[in-house]
Each structure stands twice: as structure tokens, then as C-alpha cells.
Amino acid sequence: MTVFKAILLGILQGATEFLPVSSSGHLLLAQKMLGLTEPELAFDILLHLGTLLAVLLFLRREISDILGSFSRRYPDLRPGAWGRRDLLLLVVSSVPTAIIGYAFHDAVETGVTFLGVGFRYLILTTFLLISNLRFRHKMDPDRIELWEAAAIGIMQGAAVFPGLSRSGSTISLALVLGIGASRSAKYSFFISLPAILGAALLHLHQGVSVLPRVLPSVLGFLFAFAVGYISLLFVERLVTRGRFLRFAPYTFLLAVLSFYLYGKG
After folding, report:
1. Sign of torsion, CA 150 91 49 108?
2. Model's pTM, two decimal places?
């Protein structure tokens, strides 16, 4: 693997993992337009670990709150502090994600087409982005009920299909449910931790190839981490400012591009 390809794949992984544009859909389009091939399993896992580290760094305060909540010396007195209940919510969201992801993984691997990607970009991702107005009014917009966590987890699991954005789907649903903007974004990032780790383990189960040379491997990891962290900051800012739907025209254009590539065979 060349240094250029490693950097490009690192940027692609870091940006599209958290931007509401579908990382798997982008990889498929990049393979077609730029002649890229899917990264070797070991390198792909390395890129996932880079984005995983970006989430851990971004949510360092919330993770510290959760760990501190287990100690009597660290009561959750600060407004908006995260705690042990968030771990329960994480489990509730992750169970349906894991079931859906495992059940449909093989079908997705063998049945990806530009027509399917375009349909999901056009009908689902774009629609979700333009519909993230709050349909419910909650007395406490920072509180996530168990059934809401389960619904968000199901939506995250559905994002196993290329073209359906994980972050776009989960954040949009959270906003529709009336959950606060910042809380919606951070919870989406939070439940991505086991999802990203699970994807890496699933690839590991398929067998690990040999990593590329040291320089491409290090650069791929660092770019996935750095771009992933910047993407997290960017997405949170857009969500909290009510500008998340600005990605809708972009995903619509990707849908058109997918249909065009499908038409060309």
C-alpha cells in the first residue's frame, strides 16, 4: 500500500465515520471513481481503532463522569453530568445494533449495489436529515428513556447497509424524539464505541492480513484519528446550532451519483 492511499483511506474513514454521509457508501464510491480497493483487514481494523481513539478523546469528560459516578467521592452534582445510567442506556442501544449487524453482515457484504446505495442515500439518509425537527416535547431533554435508547440502537444497526449513515440516522432520530441537541450528538458518538469495536472484531474474526509497511500504517491511523476528532467537533457544532440538515443536499447529490454509476454498469 502506498503512503498516498493510506492517507486517503485514513481521511475517508475519519471523516465519514461521524459525518452523516455513510462511510461504507463513500468507500464504495471511492473504489469506483478513484480505483481504490477495499483496505486489507488488518489495515481496516487499524483505521477503526483510530476513530475509536478519537471518540474516547472527544468524550473524555463524559467518560470521566461515568467512571466517577461509581465512587462516593465523585457525586453527580454538576448539571448534565453523565453517570451509571448511561452505561445501562449503552447496553440497551448496543444489543439491537449487535443483533442486526451480525444477522445482516453477510447479506450486506454480498449484495451491495450502486442502486441500493443510491436508494438509501436518497430515500432514507436525506429524508432523515431534513426531518430532524423535534416531534416530541420533553420536560427533561437530556434524559433518554430505555425505549428511546432501544429505538436509537435499532436505527444504528440498520446503518450496516451502505448508504444509510449511522450518525445521521441516530442523531436525527434522537432529535425527533425530543432529546436535546448536544445530548443527541454525544449519545450517538457514545454508542458508536461498541459499534466501532464490534465492526473491528467482526473483521478480526474473518482473519487478519499483514499490515502494510510501518509508515503507511502509522499515517493511516493518525489521519483516521485526527480527521475523526475534527469531524466529531464539526458534527456537534452543526447539531447544536440546528444546521444538521445542511448535509441533506450533499447526500442527495451522492444518491444521484450512485444512480448514475449504476446506470453505467
Report:
1. negative
2. 0.84
pLDDT tens for each residue of 197-237: 887 776 666 655 566 688 888 999 999 999 999 999 999 99
Closest residue by Cα to residue 162 from 121, 199, 123, 203: 121
CA distance 181 to 242: 8
Long-range contacts of 112-117 (CB under 8 A, 24+ apart): 112/24, 112/28, 112/162, 113/262, 114/28, 114/32, 114/258, 114/259, 114/261, 114/262, 115/258, 115/259, 115/262, 116/161, 116/162, 116/163, 117/22, 117/25, 117/28, 117/29, 117/162, 117/163, 117/258
DSSP state of 139: S
> 242's torsion region: left (phi>0), alpha (psi -120 to 50) or beta?
left
